[in-house]
Amino acid sequence: MPARPVIAFVTGGYSGEAEISYKSAITIEKNIDTSKFDLYKIDIRTDGWWYVPESGQPVEVDKNDFSLTLAQRKITFDAVLIGIHGTPGEDGKLQGYFDMQGIPYTSCDAASSALTFNKRYTVAVAAFAGINVARSLHLFRDRKIDAATISGQLSLPVFVKPNNGGSSIGMSKVNQSADMQAALDKAFREDDQVLVEEFISGREFTIGVFRHNGEVVTLPFTEVIAKNEFFDFEAKYQGKSEEITPAVVDDAIAEKVRAAARKVYQVFNCRGVIRIDFIYNEEKGVPYMLEINTVPGQSEASIVPQQVRAMGWTLQEFYSSLIDDALAPK
Q1: Which Pfam families did the record assign (predicted)?
Q2: Which of 33, 44, 102, 103 is disulfide-compatible with 12, CB 3.0–4.6 A?
């Protein structure tokens, strides 16, 4: 009987989003097919990269070749399942490291991860490729523009958000000029770069996309109805939103969203599962891309697991597909 592939599942991370990574880890670990894969969970933290065996004594990963030594036996990995939100698992840093080690992984590559982690660069590339996006300004901490200038260049309301990262941390909606400076200060507390983006009215849809047996597959997508004024951190992670999966939409609208999602996946050369947020503007009859999440949340209540179940798959089947795709010859 052939040996099972040995898979490292990496969680944790160096940012405030580690909290979300650990929530995702519970679901992922519970739904990995251990009859098919040998799984080792690696906690990547600022004080080291650790595996905790059943004995409870943490073992540090050898970063020279991403290996473990357990009971004098060296363990190397056939592939890595990336479950880290934020740096270094979502911004391309780990992907570059695994590329140097020659170890395949379940997410977008280093270039696509780094690009999509930067919201402004993402919308710039999307616009260049003919994907609809909102008008925006890109601000830098050392080259700040005053609030009045921003209000003169973009139509209110606008969203002000840290340019890098996800989870809607540091994000504000600004309806009047007087509130602009406080929103900028809030965003700059999280990042050295800030994106100010015009508000687009419409229905908010979010859709998971992945590759299965070489084909790009769109999951049944979700309509997000925020109880707060917009889909902020509370709405995402503290129950302050209503999520309807699958979204109740006309077939013509659904196909426009699915087609836009497939185009985004291909334009950005994505791998693994991503989640794309759209606003569907009913007046113009087109979806506008908001952002791309290359390591979407995987907690039981998260949107991608909802969509997987709506497609009729188990999470075990889904994670097996992601790992199989990473292991497949390229």
Answers
A1: Dala_Dala_lig_C, Dala_Dala_lig_N
A2: 44
